[in-house]
Structure formats: structure tokens, C-alpha cells
Design a protein that fits this description.
alpha+beta; six-stranded antiparallel beta sheet; five-stranded mixed beta sheet; 16 strands
Amino acid sequence: MRLHRLEMTAFGPFGDSQVVDFDALSAAGLFLLHGPTGAGKTSVLDAVCYALYGSVPGARQSGQGSTLRSDHAAAGTRTAVTLDLTVAGRRLEITRRPPWERPKRRGSGTTVDKAQSTLRAYDAAAGAWKDLSRSHQEIGEEITQLLGMSREQFCQVVLLPQGDFARFLRADAEARGKLLGRLFDTRRFAEVEKRLAERRRATEAQVREGDAALLADAHRMQQAAGDAMELPDLAPGEPGLAEAVLTAAAVARSTARDRLTVAHCRLTAAEAAQRAAEQDLDDVRELARLQRRFAEARERAARLEERAGAHRETRARMERGRKAETVAPALELRAAADAGHRRAAAADAHARARLPERFADAGAAGLAAAARRAAEELGSLESARRAERRLAGLLDERADADRQERADTEALQEAESWLADWESTRTALRSRIETAQEAAGRAEQLAVRREPAQARLRAARDRDRLTEETGRARQRALASGGKSLELKEHWLRLKEERLTGIAAELAANLADGTPCAVCGATEHPAPARKVAGHVDRETEERALADHQAAERQHAEDERRLAALSAELAAATAEAGDTPADRLAAEAEELDRRLAQDRRAASALHQAETELRAAEQERERRLDDRRRIELHAASRLARREDLDRQRTALEAEIAEARGTAATVAARAAQLERRAALLTDAADAARAAEESAERLKEADGRLAEAAFRAGFDTPGEAAGALLDDSAHRELQHRLDTWQAEEAAVRAVLAESDTVAAARRPPADLPAAEAATARAGRRLREAASARDAAARRCGELDRLSARAATGVRRLAPLREEYDRVARLAALTAGTSADNERRMRLESYVLAARLEQVAAAATVRLRRMSSGRYTLVHSDDRAGRGRSGLGLHVVDAWTGRERDTATLSGGETFFASLALALGLADVVTDEAGGVRLDTLFIDEGFGSLDDQTLDEVLDVLDSLRERDRSVGIVSHVPDLRRRVHAQLEIVKGRSGSTVRQRGTA
């Protein structure tokens, strides 16, 4: 990183714009930044840090925003810092403006402008600056990535505040650890310690959880085994718990199996006793059944004797019923004739009641004659009916004519109204057509402009995308170029080393009597031998191959960069510098206007169609008006003809209808009278015929009853049985016979008679004995089932416990391993003799590198007297690893850095700062730091030591570095010619450069 130019406006003590030309100051290699106290020397360094990171160093971080602004600045001047620098081969310009409270442009009061940041890159090919970003976050990430350092690292490595390093020399291990942790970013190692501790806690919790589950299974096994199992007195996580639980489970399973065998034997004995008791119970129940059967048969025989008289009566009634069945057809015939006569008489009375009173005594013949007369009169009304229907048609035709006249009148009025608005309608439609035609013309023009606008927008988006890709390709090309140079240097170094040791390589092929390839001698008294680290041909060729591969990769990256640059130039030429957002907005506005005009133009066809339809509608309405006028004349003649026909028909109908309202009503009256007379005549004839049939049925019934043995037909009807009564009597007879046969069969059974002679059966005693045997069997079965369940439960729980122990074994091993690693990285393990945490161990290695790098410069500053060494001894009861001692060559003793004097502390801290800068630079990826600043501390040195310190600083120029010394020591103004002076004044500080070209 090399600084070129710094411009500060209204920043810190500087009231107006001040410019620092670092290129001129760096030409001398060593330059002095001096001025009175409070003039603003440190503010220059703050401006550099603010431009890079957007904040100022250390304790001055509170000075952001309004307090960065100079109190000497004019009200309208905004605070700004612009830094021009080269980093990682790229020329960049960073401009930052903090938040600014300024007066309002309108009205009174103030308003706050937000902070602004700008990053630009110099394009050497175009010879101009190119904007890269205006985002605070993107600029911060880009600068941090290019420098490879955070703000804290930059302030320690580039600005070198000596007071901080003096405190670092005197600090304890914890304070050194905090500073080194910020510089070298060892958070990942602290995160490893944290992760291991979390992993240890997690695996420990899992092991405890597994042991808790194992103990839970053990408690369940204890509940299942009863008093046959004792649990181990161990807590979850304690060693030996699994083995103790499995052993106790095995003992409980053995005891449970013994108890199961005893329960099986008891169950077998109880089952035999149960079978014997059940057999005895069956025998007693059979004896009791036979005795009950005999007693029930005796009781049934007694009941049959009691019902013998009723049985004889039932048989006699059944016999009379069979005789009466021969008279049943005659009875049914007489009943049917009687019912038919009643129905016919009722129908005759009903029909006569509907006739006039003069027909009450008329016979069937008289009624039929009256019906014929009514039918003849009805036939004479047919002509009047046709006239009435014709009159109705004439009235409907006249009403249709009236409705048509009204409809024509309304249509004529509507046509006249529509034709009156025709001119305005035609003018409006023609106006719409002209407007749509104009929109169509505009749409064609906009469509022609749309494609170039879209092409320019696409080019602008390609330009922005290619800008980012070109930046990434340039970084890859720089990285591959750097790698190629490193591999080339490595190859050349190996080649040089091989050439140095080529004698040993040639001597390896020598043999006695064989001439030397170099001198030709056949004797080889002292051939060269290969030393440690000898470079052979294969090593050199591998290095050459790596270098060539890197060269090819670099060439490919350069080719890709050139291609992207060409594409970017083409896209830029087409799109120009207009932002893509603005082009997108213009294209969107063009599309909106085009869509609007196309929508307006799309109405052209509809307007033309409406105009043609309106013209056709006008012609149609004119035709309608002429047609209506013709219809009006023809309707008048037709109406007069209809009136004449109606008068003639009304006279004919009035004569035919008589007193009825209409001819149809008179015809309906005659039809109804003829139908009533016909029905009455039919009913009278049916009544006379049914009376004859009833008389004949009475004679047949009397003859049938006498032949069957009955005195009267009524007696035969009373003896007749219906189906339900016949079935009931037959059922009684069948039941009596079946019961009598069953009783006789039971009383004839030998085993039943034998059982009746034995003593009564004692069924309750047999049932009680069987119940006792069943209870003993159930108890034995329950005991056997409980023992079997206990064995099964113990087997299941034991298997689950064994499975859990096997599953937990890898986790327990992992816990032991993670616990050992966590204790080792945390410094609490017995294996960690120095009680060093992992982060402290890494920082100790970094501190050892810093001490080695600082010793190179410290020995020159102290004339070879002092050497910085790293110590990993423990300090008191604390942890070791971050100790720092100084070795005094004059005394040969090693002592603490806190014992150094003021001047010694300064140049020791300066050497430490320079060494730390080298190590942090390497740690940050090897970014070259071509500009360094050293802040104060030179006043504590004598002349000789000051010369030696300046010689060391001057030696930094060997690698084209420039070093700025921030000090107000007067003697340095004489020794350092290139100077940047800060002049303090009442209107603010200014800068002056001296001793530069």
C-alpha cells in the first residue's frame, strides 16, 4: 500500500481544504511530520484512517460525524476527506463525507445530510477515473479485502503508536493476549475452545440422559421383580453403572424363572382338581334334571284330567262346523245378492235426487225418453256455437289492429327522435375515428424508437455487469501474476542452489578408473558430498513446471481480462455513461406511452364499425317510417269491415242462447241434463234386476240348510266357523293329543323312573365344591401368568437396557475423547503442563515470531546489547504462554521488559512495532506496506541512540518504503530534510511541505 495524495476539507483543526502530497514526501524515503502541540499532527493520521475505514483510531472513535468537523470551517463548507493510494496494484481514490448539519436552503433552522462515500479507480488505458461504488458497506468490504487488515490492525501496523507498544512491553499476559487477539484474529481458535466445551457439555448431557434412561429401566425391572432385585447406589454418569445394572438384571431374571416353574406345578394340580369337581357337578345336575322331569310329567297328567270336559266340547263344535261348511256357498250367494240390491237401490235414489221433482216417479222408460229429447235440442245449437267462436276471433283481430296501431305510433315517434340526433352522432363518431388515427401514427413512431432504447438498456446492464466481472478478472490476473513471480523466484533460487551443489551431483556418478566429466582425471581422492537440503534435478524441474503452469494461468487470466475489457468498452460505447436505472425508466416511459397510444389506436376499428352501423340504422329507420305510413291507410278499411261482421254475428247469437249468458253456457246446460237423465234411467233398470236376483238366492239358501240338518238358515250360519276359529279349535285338539302322548312317554322312561326312586339331588353342595376348585385354579393361573409376565417384562427391559448400553458405548467413548480435548484446549488438563489455552498457544507462536522479527532491529538500535525473547513460563498462579523478556548481552541475564529505562523502552517498543508490522503483514496475505507512520517517543533518546534508530528506519527504504515520523523533537528537523509541518493559527491549522522536489 502506497499513499499518493491526501485532501482534507473542514476536518479536525483544518478550517479549509489542505492537501498533503505523499509522493513528494516519499521520494526522500524518510520524512518528518511535526508542529506545535494541538496543531493537528495526529489529525493527518486520523484522516488517512477515516478515509480507509470510515472511522478514526482508538479512543478518538467518539469523534464521528459532527465532532470530526472543524470548528473553524465556514457554515457552507462540508467536511470531506479524499485519499489517493495504490493498493494491490490498483490506483484508487476514496472520498468520505461524515454526516453534516447544515443551514436549510429555505427558511430558518438546520437539516442533517447523510454520510457519503465514494470509491473510484484509475483506468490507465482511458486515462480517467472511473466510479466503482457509493455504498459505505461495499467500500469498507473492498478496502478491508485489499489491505487484508481490519482497522485495529491497520492502526497498529501502519500508524505505529509507540505509547501502546510501551504499554504492551509492560503489560501482563492477559493484556498482551487481548492486543494480539485483535491483531491476529484468533477468534477461530477461541471458537474451537468454545465448540469443544459445548460439545463436551452436550455429550455429557447425552451420556447422563442415557444413564438416566438406563436407571429408569432398572427401576421398572425392580418394580417387575418385586423384592428379587437390588439397584446399584450409583448416579447417572458415574462409571460402572451399566455393568451393575446388567448384573442385577441377570439375577432378577434367574429368580423370576424359578418362581415361574413353581407356579406351573401348582397350576397343573389345580386343573386336575377342577376337572374332578366339574364331573361330579355334571352327575348331580343330570340326577336333578331327571327327578324334575318325572315330577313335571305327573303334574301335566293331572292337568290333562282336569281339562277333559272342555276337550269333548271342542270336538263337538268342530263336528257342527264341518256340517255347516256345506251350506256356506248358499250363504255367500245370498249375501252377495243382498249387497248388490242395496247398492243398486242407493244408486237409483242418488240419481233421482239430482233430477227435477217432476221426474221423481218416472220409470226407466220415461227417463230414457226425456234424455233423448235433451240430446236433440243440443244438436240444434252447433251453428250458434260457430258464430260465437267467429265473433271472438273478430274481437281479437280488432284488438290486434289497435295494438299494431299503437306500436306503429311509438315506432314512428322513436324513429323521428333518432333521426333528429343523427347529425350529432355522426360528428362524434368521425371525431373518434380521427383521434384513433392520430394515436396509430404516434404508436408507429414510438415503436420505431422502442428497439434502440431497449438495446441501449441491455448494453447499460451489460456494462454494469462487465464492470464487476472486469474488476474480479483484474484481481485474479494480479493474484496469478504475483503467484507466477513468486514461483519464478522460487525456481531461480532452487536453480542457483542446485548449481552451487552441482559438484556433489556430478560426484555421485564417479567411479574409480572412470574419467571425470569435468577434469578427465581417473582418480577421485576427495569427491564432493551432498549436504543436507541439497536440490536435485527433479526438484528444480518440479519448480520450473509449477512456474510454467502459473505463467499459463496468468496468461489465461490476462486474456480473460482483455476480453472482458473489450466487451466492457463495446457496451460502454453503446450505452454511454447514462445509469441503467435512468435508461430503464426512459424505456418504461416509452413502453407506457406506446401501450397508451396502441390502446387509443385499437378503438379505430370499433369507431368505424359503429359509424357504418349508425348509417345502416338511419336507412332502416327511414324505411320503417315509410312502412308505418302505408300500414295506417290499410288498417282503416279493415277496421270498418270487422265492425259490420260483428253486428251480424251478435244478433244470431242472442237468438240462440235464450236466457243463458252465452251459447256455450246454454249447450252446457243441455249436456248436463241429458247426462243426468241417462244415468237415472240406467240406475232404475239396475235396481229392478238386483231385486229379482235377491229373491232367487233366498230360496236356494233355505233348501241347503234343511239338507245339512239345520232347522233354519240362521242356525246354519251360526254353526259356520271362519278360518281363524277353525284353526284355533284344531290347534286345541292337536295340543291335547301331543301333550297326552308326551306325558305317557316320560312316565314310561326307565332312567327317569329310576331317578325318581333315588333321594333328592344336592345341587348347591356340588356347585359350591366346583366353585372352590375353580377359584383355586384361577389363583394358580393368575400366579403362573404373573410369573410369566414378570419373566417377559424382565427379559424385555433387560434387552432394552443391554441395547441402550451398547448404543451408549460409542457416545461414552466420544464424551471421554471430547472431554480430554476440551480440558486440553482450555488449559485445565493434567496433560497441559503449562496450563495454556489453545488461543494463548497460537498467540504465543505469533508473539515468538514478533519477538524474532523485532530482535533484528532492536540489536541494531541497541548496538547489539538487547534481544527480545518469548517466554512461556507461568506467572504466579496464572497461565503461561505470553511472557516477553529482554536479554542483556552485557550481563548475560534475561530480565523482564518492564525494567527497561525510558529511552530503552522507546526503541524496544519501536522495534517491537516494526516486527509486529512485518508479521501482521505476512498474516494479512503479504500486502506490501510502502508507507508507515511512527508517532512520538523520540525525545527520550540520546544522540547516539537516535542516530542508530534513524539508521534502522532509514534501512526500511531498502524495499522502497517511506516512513513518516510524527514528532515535535527539534533535533529531528535537522536530521530529516523532507518535512510536513502543521502550522497552528486562529483561523485553523494549515500544512506546509519542505525539503521536497
